[in-house]
Write a structure and sequence with these properties.
With 997 residues, this protein is an alpha/beta fold. It folds into 7 domains: 1-90, Death Domain, Fas (Orthogonal Bundle), CATH 1.10.533.10; 91-223, no CATH class; 229-296, no CATH class; 306-516, P-loop containing nucleotide triphosphate hydrolases (Rossmann fold, 3-Layer(aba) Sandwich); 534-633, Up-down Bundle (phosphoenolpyruvate carboxylase, domain 3), CATH 1.20.1320; 664-799, 3-Layer(aba) Sandwich (Rossmann fold), CATH 3.40.50.300; 870-996, RIG-I-like receptor, C-terminal regulatory domain (Metal Binding Protein, Guanine Nucleotide Exchange Factor, Chain A). The chain has 39 helices and 24 strands. The strands form 5 sheets. A 7-stranded parallel sheet has the order 3-4-2-5-6-1-7. A hairpin with a 3-residue loop joins strand 16 and strand 17. Helix 9 packs parallel to helix 11, helix 12 (170-181) crosses helix 13 and helix 25 runs antiparallel to helix 27. 38% of the residues are buried. The structure holds zinc ion. Residues 874, 876-877, 879, 931, 933-934, 936 line the site of zinc ion (ZN). It catalyses: ATP + H2O = ADP + phosphate + H(+). Its main location: cytoplasm. Residues 674-828 form the Helicase C-terminal domain. Residues 860-991 form the RLR CTR domain. This is Activating signal cointegrator 1 complex subunit 3.
C-alpha cells in the first residue's frame, strides 16, 4: 500500500469529504477499476458516499504511483486545483489555517445548512444556480438546471446546496454579498446570509481578538467578486427579488437602483484591477493584505466597551444629550449602537420616523456613512446625502434608516417653496444626531436647523430626540470658569440637551478609555525667526526705503507701519495696517494720495514675501515678491518710477540669493529631520504637516518635491474647499481621493491646512503630526491631537514665540474646558430643575439675538435700496469713472457698465487666470479691467456664453460719493454698497450690444 497516500488520506479526509468531487477525476485517472467507477456514477446524488468509495478505491486498487496520478488529476481539474495546491502547501499559511479551521468544524458547517435547508423553499433554486455558476462545471450546471426543471425549486435545492458545499468556499462570500445587496428582500435569505457571515467570517473575531487584523485581510479576499459574468448576471437575480418585494414604492426602487449603479461602478473599477482568470483566484487569495479596497462593509457585530456603554446609556433611554469623549474613543460606534437600540425598542409607528446624522462637511458625511455600513446590521439601510452631485437630492431619505448628510442640504429643503419637496418638518424624523456638535453656535447651519426645531415646539407631533457628539464643547473667548461654563451651557441650550453632557465618569471606564485612545508624545522645537541673512536684509531695506520716501512727500501724516524688522513678523497686523491706510487714502482729497497708495501697494507685496520667507524657502518668497498685483502699476510719476526701479533692482538681487546657503530656511531642516527620523523608525509611517495657509502648503510641497530624500514619500496638499487669495480650494471629490491615497500609502506625507484635516477626518495610521507655526483655538488643539491615532504616535510643534504663547494659552483653555465639562455634568445631575430653566432662558436669549441680527440685516438692506445717484471714482487716482445709474445688475450677481463713455475710461490687461469659469458657469474670465490713468484694478472682462465680452465691475476699485451730499464711501463688497444697480435682463444687454455694432 502506498504509505504516502495513506498518510495523505488520513490527514486530509475531512477536506476530501467536504470538498472533493470524484466524478471529473475519474476521466483523468484511467487506471481506476470499472466497478468503482460505476458505483461512483450511480451515487451521483450522494456526494459524500462518492468520496468514500473513491478514497477506498485509491487505497485498494494496488496501482503503483496512484498517489502521484491522483495529484496530477487534481492539478488538471480546473475547479479542484486549489485542493492540490493546498495539499502540496502552495497556499499561504494564513489561508491554510483558515481552511483547517473550517475543515475541523465542518460538521458545524453542515449543521448550519441542515437548519436553514427546510426554510429554503422560498428561494428560487434557479437563481441560486446562477449565483453558483462561476463555480460549477458545464456538466454540473446543466445537471442542476435539469433538476430544477424536473423536481421543482424546493426539491432541487438540497442538490444545489450539496454541490455548492464541495466548491471552493469563495462562493459563500458571493452569496452573502448578493443577498446583502438585495437588502435581504426576503427573510430567509437574510437569515442565510447572516448565518453564513457569522459562521465564516466573524465568529473567530469574537473568540480570538488578536487575530483580528489577519482575519480582516482574509475577509477582504473572500469578499471580492470572483468573476465578471457572475456579477452581472446576478443583477437580474437581485432585481427580480426587488420587483417581488411587496412594500417597495417607486421611490424606494429608484433609490435602490441608484445605489446599485454606484456599487456596480465601484465593482467594475476593482474588476479592472483584478485578474478574472479562475487560476488566479487562488493567487488572489494568497495575496493577503495587499491593501485592496474592501468592497463590502461587513457588519462586525461590535461589542461596546464598558466606557462606550456609559457614553451611550442616557441617549438609549431617549434623552437629549451631548456625548463628549476624546477623538478615537469611538463616538461613531456609540452612535451606531444608539441608533440600533432606537429601532429595536421603539414601537411600530415610531420606526417610520428615521434617523438623521449630520456632519459639518461633505468628506465627513461620506466617511461616516461608510462607518455606519460597517457598524450597523445590514438590515438597516444607510446612505449619505450632501450638496454635491448625485447625492444632492433628499429624494427617498425618509425610507432610509440612517441618512448621513450636511445640514445645509436639509435647511435648503426646509426653506424651499417647492410644493413637491421631500421634507417639510424636522419632526418627520425620530432622531437627529449632530457630529462635531460644538459648531452649533451663532450662524452655523447646525444652529439654524435647531432654530427650526425649536419652532416646532407647539407642534402636535413629537419632537425628534437630539444627540450631539463632540470631543470638545468649546469655550469661545472665555478665560474664566464662569464664562466658560456659560459658553457650554449655551451650546447645551442650542442643542436642547435637557439631560446635559455625558462624559466617561466611572473610574474603571476611564482607565479603559485611556488605554484605547492614542495619547501622542508631544515635543516642541523653537522656530528660528532671527534670520538676518542677505535675503531678509534686501527685502527689509527696500521696505525701509519706501517708507522714508512716503514720509517725505505725503502731506497728511501716514500712521507708522508695524515693525517688520522684528524677529517675529506679525503678518496679520501688517496686512491690517495696509488695508486701513489704503482706505484712508481713498477717502483723502490729497493730491499725493495716488503716489502714497502706490507705496503701500509695494510695501504690501514686500510684507507678503517676508511672511512666506519665514515659513518656506526663499524661492517661494521671491515668487510672492513678484506678485501679480504689481503687474498693472504705472510709471507715470517720479515716485512710481522710483518704486518700479527699486523693486526690480531688489528682484534681481533676490533671484541670485535664492541659492545662497546663508539664506536657507533653518526651520525646513528641522522639519526634514523630524520626517526622516520617523521614517527611519517606522518605514510605513504617515505624516501630517499642518500649516496655516494654502500658499505655504503648496510652497512646502514644492520644497519637498525638490528634495531627493523627501520626494520619495510623495507629499500632497490637503486643503479646505474655500479659495484664498489666488489659490483654489479642493473640491470634496479631490479631498476624498487624496485622503484615500494617504490611507493607502501612495502619499505618505500630507501637507494640510488646519480646517481641512483638523476635524473628524480619520487617519487611523497617522503617527506623526508636525504643527508648523499655526495659531489654533482650544477645540482645534484637541482635534489635531486626535489625528495622531496610532498608538505610539508623536506630535511635534515647531513654532515661533508668538504662536507658542498662544499655544500655552490654548493649553490652559483646554484644561479649563475639561474641568468645566466635568463641572457641568455634575451641575446637571444635582440641579435638574434649575438647569432646565437655565436652558430655556438661554434659548430665548439665542432666539432674541438671532432675531436682532435678522432685523439688522433687513435694515441694512433697506439702506442699500436707495435710488439716489452715486458717483464712482478711481479709488487710487480719483478719476471719475461713471455714475451708479450707468450700472446694471445681470444674473443677479454681476454689475456691468456697457456705456461707450465708460469704455473710454479703462484699458484691459492680461489676466493670469484667463478662462477660469465664474459663478453661474456661463461666464469666463478674459482680462483685467484697469483704470486707464493709473492702472488701478476696477474689475474684469468676462465672456458670456462664449460670445459677448462684458466688463464686470469690482466695487473695491472705486471711491463712491453720494452726488447730492458729496459724502464719500469706501466699500469692499457689493452687499455693503449704499445703492443697488438696476436689474437688467442679460438678453436686453446683448441686443443693445448687437445694435451698437
Ligand atoms: Zn485711476
Amino acid at each position: 500500500m502506498d504509505s504516502e497516500l495513506q498518510r495523505c488520506i488520513t490527514n486530509y479526509r475531512p477536506l476530501f469529504v467536504y470538498f472533493l468531487t470524484p466524478l471529473p477525476l475519474l476521466e483523468l485517472m484511467p487506471t481506476l477499476r470499472d466497478e468503482a467507477r460505476k458505483q461512483i456514477q450511480d451515487l451521483r446524488d450522494r456526494p459524500r458516499e462518492q468520496v468514500d468509495i473513491f478514497l477506498k478505491e485509491l487505497l485498494e486498487c494496488g496501482e503503483k504511483g496512484i498517489y502521484r496520478s491522483f495529484l496530477d488529476a487534481l492539478n488538471k481539474s480546473e475547479d479542484q486545483r486549489w485542493i492540490h495546491d493546498f495539499m502540496i502547501g502552495n497556499l499561504s499559511n494564513e489561508l491554510t489555517d483558515k481552511f483547517i479551521y473550517h475543515i475541523e468544524n465542518a460538521e458545524a458547517f453542515k449543521k448550519l445548512f441542515d437548519i436553514i435547508l427546510p426554510q429554503l423553499n422560498v428561494i428560487d433554486a434557479r437563481t441560486l444556480v446562477t449565483v453558483l455558476r462561476p463555480w460549477l462545471s458545464k456538466g454540473e450546471n446543466d445537471d442542476l438546471n435539469e433538476k430544477c426543471k424536473s423536481l421543482g425549486s424546493t426539491f432541487a435545492l438540497p442538490y444545489i446546496i450539496s454541490s455548492a458545499l464541495r466548491k471552493k468556499p469563495t462562493w459563500i462570500k458571493e452569496l452573502y454579498k448578493h443577498t446583502k445587496e438585495a437588502n435581504y428582500s426576503n427573510e430567509v435569505e437574510g437569515k442565510l446570509a447572516k448565518a453564513l457571515a457569522d459562521y465564516f467570517i466573524f465568529d473567530e473575531n469574537k473568540e480570538n481578538a488578536e487575530k483580528e487584523e489577519a482575519m480582516d485581510s482574509i475577509e477582504c479576499n473572500f469578499l471580492q467578486p470572483s468573476t465578471s459574468s457572475g456579477y452581472f448576471e446576478l443583477h437580474g437575480f437581485i432585481n427580480k427579488h426587488k420587483n417581488d418585494a411587496e412594500n417597495s414604492t417607486p421611490n424606494e426602487q429608484q433609490m435602490e437602483l441608484d445605489h446599485e449603479e454606484q456599487n456596480a461602478q465601484e465593482d467594475c473599477e476593482d474588476l479592472d484591477q483584478m485578474s478574472l482568470d479562475s487560476d488566479e483566484i487562488v493567487d488572489d487569495m494568497i495575496d493577503i493584505g495587499s491593501g485592496k479596497k474592501q468592497l463590502c462593509y461587513p457588519f462586525k457585530n461590535y461589542e461596546l466597551r464598558g466606557y462606550q456603554h456609559e457614553l451611550a446609556n442616557l441617549a438609549k433611554r431617549g434623552k437629549n444629550v451631548i456625548i463628549c469623549a476624546p477623538p478615537g474613543a469611538g463616538k461613531t460606534l456609540v452612535a451606531a449602537n444608539i441608533i440600533q437600540n432606537y429601532y429595536e425598542t421603539c414601537g411600530n409607528e415610531e420606526t417610520k420616523r428615521k434617523v438623521l446624522f449630520f456632519t459639518p462637511t461633505i468628506v465627513l458625511a461620506q466617511q461616516q456613512n461608510d462607518r455606519f455600513k460597517e457598524y450597523l446590521p445590514s438590515k438597516y439601510i444607510t446612505d449619505y446625502r450632501c450638496g454635491n452631485g448625485d447625492n444632492a437630492s433628499l429624494l427617498g431619505v425618509k425610507d432610509l434608516d440612517v441618512v448621513v448628510l450636511t445640514p445645509k442640504l436639509l435647511l435648503n429643503e426646509l426653506n424651499s417653496d417647492d410644493k413637491q419637496k421631500f421634507v417639510y418638518k424636522l419632526n418627520e424624523f425620530g432622531m437627529l444626531i449632530y457630529d462635531e456638535c460644538h459648531h452649533c453656535r451663532g450662524g452655523h447651519p447646525y444652529n439654524n436647523l435647531m432654530r427650526k426645531y425649536f419652532g416646532l415646539q407647539n407642534d402636535l407631533d413629537k419632537l425628534p430626540q437630539i444627540i450631539g457628539l463632540t470631543a470638545t464643547l468649546g469655550i469661545g473667548k472665555a478665560k474664566t470658569k464662569d464664562a466658560a461654563l456659560q459658553e457650554m451651557k449655551q451650546l447645551c441650550a442650542n442643542l436642547n440637551a435637557v439631560a446635559g453632557v455625558v462624559t466617561v465618569r466611572d473610574s474603571q471606564n476611564k482607565k479603559e478609555m485611556e488605554k484605547h485612545i492614542a495619547n501622542p508624545d508631544e515635543s516642541r522645537l523653537p522656530m528660528n525667526m532671527e534670520r538676518g541673512d542677505p535675503f531678509f536684509k534686501e527685502v527689509t531695506a527696500l521696505m525701509k526705503n519706501i517708507e522714508q520716501v512716503m514720509k517725505h512727500f505725503a502731506e497728511e501724516p501716514i500712521s507708522q507701519a508695524p515693525d517688520y524688522k522684528h524677529d517675529d513678523f506679525d503678518k496679520n497686523m501688517f496686512k491690517r495696517w495696509c488695508v486701513e491706510t489704503k482706505n484712508e487714502l481713498t477717502l483723502s482729497e490729497s493730491s499725493h494720495s495716488r503716489d502714497a497708495r502706490s507705496c503701500i501697494e509695494y510695501l504690501e507685496v514686500c510684507g507678503d514675501a517676508l511672511d512666506v520667507y519665514y515659513i518656506c524657502r526663499p524661492e517661494a518668497a521671491l515668487k510672492t515678491f513678484m506678485g501679480e498685483t504689481l503687474d498693472t502699476q504705472k510709471q507715470d510719476t517720479p515716485i512710481e518710477t522710483f518704486l518700479f526701479q527699486h523693486h526690480s533692482d531688489a528682484m534681481d538681487k533676490l533671484k541670485k540669493l535664492c541659492d545662497d546657503p546663508r539664506c536657507a530656511n533653518p526651520n525646513l531642516a528641522k522639519i526634514k529631520n523630524c520626517i526622516l527620523k520617523k521614517f527611519a523608525e517606522v518605514p510605513n509611517s504617515r505624516i501630517m504637516l499642518m500649516t496655516q495657509m494654502k500658499i505655504y502648503a503648496y510652497a512646502l510641497k514644492d520644497w519637498m518635491n525638490e528634495d531627493d530624500k523627501l520626494k520619495v514619500f510623495q507629499p500632497e496638499v490637503f486643503t479646505g474647499k474655500q479659495p484664498s487669495r489666488d489659490i483654489r480650494g479642493l473640491t470634496p471629490q479631490a479631498q476624498q481621493a487624496i485622503m484615500k491615497s494617504f490611507k493607502s500609502g501612495q502619499h505618505k506625507i500630507l501637507i494640510s491646512t488646519p480646517h481641512a484635516a483638523g476635524e473628524g477626518i480619520d487617519v487611523a495610521d497617522c503617527n506623526l503630526v508636525i504643527n508648523y507655526n499655526f495659531l489654533q483655538n482650544e477645540s482645534l488643539t484637541v482635534q489635531i491631537k486626535g489625528r495622531v491615532r496610532k498608538r505610539g504616535g508623536e506630535m511635534v510643534h515647531i513654532s515661533s514665540d508668538r504662536v507658542e504663547r498662544r499655544d500655552r494659552l490654548n493649553f490652559y483653555k483646554t484644561h479649563l474646558m475639561n474641568e468645566c465639562t466635568d463641572m457641568l455634568a455634575n451641575f446637571v445631575q444635582e440641579n435638574q430643575a434649575s438647569y432646565r430653566e437655565e436652558l430655556i432662558s438661554l434659548n430665548k436669549l439665542d432666539m432674541k439675538q438671532f432675531q436682532l441680527e435678522v432685523l439688522k440685516k433687513l435694515k441694512e438692506a433697506q439702506v442699500q435700496k436707495r435710488n439716489d445717484e452715486f458717483l464712482l471714482q478711481c479709488a487710487k487716482c480719483k478719476e471719475f469713472a461713471c455714475s451708479s445709474y450707468d450700472l446694471g445688475l445681470v444674473d443677479n450677481q454681476h454689475r456691468i457698465n456697457i456705456t461707450p463713455e465708460f469704455r473710454q475710461k479703462y484699458e484691459i490687461k492680461e489676466h493670469p487666470r484667463k478662462d477660469k469659469r465664474l459663478m453661474g458657469r456661463d461666464w469666463r474670465k478674459i482680462s483685467k479691467v484697469v483704470c486707464k490713468k493709473c492702472g488701478h484694478e476696477w474689475g474684469i472682462e468676462a465672456q458670456y456664453k462664449g460670445a459677448f465680452i462684458l466688463p464686470l465691475i469690482k466695487i473695491e476699485g472705486f471711491r463712491i460719493t453720494e452726488k447730492a451730499t458729496k459724502r464719500p464711501y469706501v466699500v469692499r463688497r457689493w452687499k455693503n454698497a449704499p445703492f443697488v444697480p438696476q436689474e437688467i435682463d442679460i438678453s436686453v444687454v446683448l441686443r443693445q450690444l448687437v445694435d451698437d455694432e
